[in-house]
Design goal:
The structure holds two protein chains of two kinds. Chain A is mainly alpha-helical. Chain A has a single domain, classed as MetI-like fold, CATH 1.10.3720.10. Helix content of chain A is about 70%, strand content about 0%. Chain A has 14 helices and two strands. A two-stranded antiparallel sheet of chain A has the order 1-2. In chain A, helix 2 (about 30-60) packs across helix 14 (about 290-329) and helix 5 (about 85-115) packs across helix 11 (about 235-250). Chain B is α/β, with parallel strands linked by helices. A six-stranded mixed sheet of chain B has the order 6-7-8-3-9-10, sandwiched between helices. Chain B has a four-stranded antiparallel sheet with strand order 2-1-4-5, with helices on both faces. Chain B is globular and about 55 Å long. The chains are: A mainly alpha, B alpha/beta. At the A-B interface, helix 9 and helix 10 of A face helix 3, helix 4 and helix 7 of B.
Chain lengths: ~325, ~290
């Protein structure tokens, strides 16, 4: 709306200065506010698009040289200018999966305890302590990982896993282990995503109406049956969301993983072997990359990481929507 | 001990019936006549000196009450009088509220349900409950909602389950409406149907006493009528305790009525007597609408 229109519509009185944000009948302020917020919203999309575009442009040289081989090759040889992303994608995904495998049961256990079983006085303090884990900077986790977790894994945990793997003829755990491995990275990631899973699933559980618990109780359900029937089952969708958010965090985590994963670009089914991740290789090699091609390859890794995270999040949201829609029918 | 009390109550009941013959005609609320009026049932449950607390707040003060088999016992009273708390003591649901405390004793036939050897899970399987808001499990189908009680008891036989589901839904007067959509989600039914589904769910386990905590307060008048008709049907086989804030409903469905105020049981007698010739002034005031 034209602001001057309001000025003339003043009953012939002396024109007064228009306030910057007029809340008069013109609705100018409303419209302005709507446009402003829309601008903010689209700014985010625009920035994401710009990031992708920049990465796309920066990765053009590698794409030109390697083509789709970049996605299928396992060789990473900056000296000879050969770049394949498979070891990094593999390391990122596998370490994140290990993290989920460990953190999901722990996180759900913690939040079930806190919402269903713990004494009232204990609930909030413990929840606070778990959630404060999220506030620790990841480089601190990394330091802790190098100085404490990795040696501990090498001496105490990995030999047990090796023995187990040998006994069950599993290819996942083979020695000798240095403590710097996919598995150690997964363990440290699991600690880092634990607060996410706990906090969100706790909210999901608390959102379950108490009447469900009471009905289960009144049917003669035991504590465990009550939880299963009236808490876990109705909150499947929300839990999926919690897990996906945690996975998103694990996929993008850089520092802590870099410090314990061993930084060796290889694809091995052995979880005790050192590996590499997408975020780690960018952080490690970017400052040392001298050739344009190398920098370009790192940019393409970045683009790939962005795409993978994006696709995963989209799939997660679709899953959540689909399941939620199913419930409403 | 219980038998003694039952004996006493029997005498009282006889006297009451005599009294009723001499009573004045002015009826305040129409009370339904029941075919077995005057017939005395055996004692099913008995509350003795029941006190209950939430934290430091006492909700029940020394409630003594006898529940007779195959009777509908209504508990009425204004909001916050402790009627819901009392009914929740009858199947030990009260203790599931954090910070709650209980004193006194409640018997189910000969057994104290608060006996340390008595498992609350077992108590709740014999004394079932229907809540104010219909609470079918949202993720389960209609069939599973009814079968869940049996499944919790370890029943896996599909034939038995099918049979019990149909029987329970029939008993809850819901079978005809849902028999073609048993696999639909329980939450897809209307409010009244959901409440009958909850009743069917409670009936599917071999329960003896059905507790109903304001089962109609969230329902429309037609659904309410259906539930009330259902209560009449169910009385053939079950003992029912119903909490209601609707006095007409209490008068329509029950044989005995208890009036509670501020956590105390003020008066407990045959429904007809309660609504026509109450002994306590407070009861009369409440029933005639002077407060509450």
């Amino acid at each position: 709306m034209n602001p001057s229109a309001e000025l003339t519509d003043n009953g012939g009185a002396k024109p007064r200065a228009l306030p910057l944000l007029s809340f008069g009948k013109s609705g100018f302020a409303d419209k302005f506010f709507q446009k402003l917020t829309a601008f903010f919203a689209f700014l985010i999309l625009f920035l994401a698009f710009l990031t992708a575009l920049t990465l796309w442009q920066a990765s053009a040289p590698t794409f030109h040289k390697m083509g789709w081989n970049f996605l299928t090759s396992s060789d990473w040889d900056p000296i000879n200018g050969i770049f394949g992303s498979v070891p990094f994608v593999y390391g990122t995904i596998v370490s994140s999966m290990v993290a989920l495998f460990i953190a999901v049961p722990f996180g759900l256990g913690i939040s079930l305890f806190l919402t269903e079983l713990a004494p009232m006085k204990m609930r909030d303090p413990v929840a606070f302590l778990v959630e404060i884990l999220a506030a620790i900077p990841s480089v601190v986790y990394g330091l802790w990982g190098i100085f404490l977790l990795a040696p501990f894994m090498r001496v105490h945990v990995d030999p047990v896993l090796e023995a187990l793997g040998g006994a069950l003829r599993l290819p996942f755990f083979k020695g000798p282990s240095t403590g710097l491995s996919l598995f150690t990275a997964g363990v440290i990631l699991s600690i880092m995503i634990l607060p996410t899973i706990t906090a969100i699933s706790r909210e999901v559980f608390e959102a379950v109406p108490n009447t469900y618990r009471e009905s289960a109780r009144a049917l003669g359900a035991t504590s465990w049956e009550t939880i299963l029937l009236s808490v876990l089952k109705p909150s499947r969708v929300g839990l999926l969301g919690a897990i996906m958010l945690a996975l998103g965090r694990a996929l993008g985590e850089t520092m802590a993983v870099t410090m314990v994963i061993g930084n060796t670009p290889q694809v091995s089914i052995n979880l005790l072997a050192p590996a590499h991740s997408m975020a780690s290789v960018i952080a490690n090699e970017f400052s040392e990359a001298v050739s344009d091609l190398h920098i370009s390859a790192l940019a393409e890794i970045g683009l790939l990481l962005m795409v993978i995270t994006l696709v995963l999040n989209i799939v997660a949201h679709l899953l959540v929507w689909a399941t939620a829609a199913k419930f409403q029918k | 001990m219980i038998d003694e009390l039952a004996e006493k109550d029997k005498k009282k009941e006889k006297k009451k019936v005599e009294n009723q013959e001499h009573r004045g005609e002015a009826r305040k609320i129409e009370v339904a006549h029941h075919e077995n009026e005057g017939e005395q049932h055996s004692l099913k449950m008995k509350a003795e000196g029941v006190c209950a607390w939430f934290g430091t707040k006492q909700a029940l003060y020394d409630v003594n009450m006898a529940i007779y088999e195959k009777d509908v016992t209504a508990i009425i009273g204004p909001s916050g009088c402790g009627k819901s708390t009392l009914i929740r003591c009858f199947n030990r649901m009260h203790e599931t509220v954090p910070g709650s405390r209980f004193a006194g004793d409640i018997f189910l036939e000969k057994d104290s349900i608060f006996d340390p050897r008595m498992d609350p899970v077992v108590v709740r399987r014999r004394v079932g409950m229907v809540f104010q808001k219909p609470t079918p499990f949202p993720t389960l189908s209609i069939y599973d909602n009814v079968a869940i009680g049996l499944r919790l008891n370890g029943m896996r036989d599909k034939k038995v389950l099918d049979e019990v589901v149909e029987k329970s839904l029939r008993k809850a007067a819901l079978w005809e409406e849902v028999k073609d959509s048993l696999q639909k989600a329980g939450g897809a039914l209307s409010g009244g149907q959901q409440q009958r589904l909850c009743i069917a769910r409670a009936l599917a386990i071999e329960l003896e006493v059905l507790l109903m905590d304001e089962p109609c307060s969230a329902l429309d008048p037609i659904s309410t009528t259906k539930i009330e008709e259902l209560i009449h049907e169910l009385r053939q086989n079950y003992t029912i305790i119903i909490v209601t804030h609707n006095m007409q409903q209490a008068a329509r469905v029950s044989q005995r009525t208890a009036f509670m105020l501020n956590g105390k049981l003020i008066e407990y007698d045959a429904t007809e007597k309660m609504f026509t010739n109450p002994e306590n002034k407070l009861t009369e005031d409440y029933i005639t609408g002077r407060f509450g």
